[in-house]
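Appendix C: a fully annotated inverse folding record. The material below is reproduced so that readers can follow the format used throughout the book. The structure is listed first as tokens, followed by the designed sequence.
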């Protein structure tokens, strides 16, 4: 639906729909295979920023209050893609 959504409260890399969910996705690119999956950089502070930006998006776009949402993290290392659905809770 959107990519690189920016507002005064933060940024969201991707916004998509999957089934009945509105999905806010944080994308991480890794260059070193031994550096972990990149998810560790999505700490509590980053999660809060993403949640605030998602809340603003919902307000700005007049999304129904009962819309189910989730937060995913996807990591790229060359051809390898790792997706963690529902990576953190609000």
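Designed amino acids, in order:
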């Amino acid at each position: 639906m959107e990519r690189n959504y920016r507002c005064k409260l933060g940024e969201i890399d991707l916004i998509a729909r999957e089934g009945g969910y509105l999905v806010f996705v944080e994308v991480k690119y890794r260059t070193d295979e031994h550096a972990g999956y990149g998810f560790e950089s999505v700490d509590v502070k980053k999660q809060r920023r993403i949640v605030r930006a998602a809340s603003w998006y919902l307000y700005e776009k007049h999304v129904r209050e009962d819309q189910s949402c989730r937060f995913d993290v996807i990591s790229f290392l060359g051809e390898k893609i790792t997706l963690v659905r529902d990576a953190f809770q609000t």
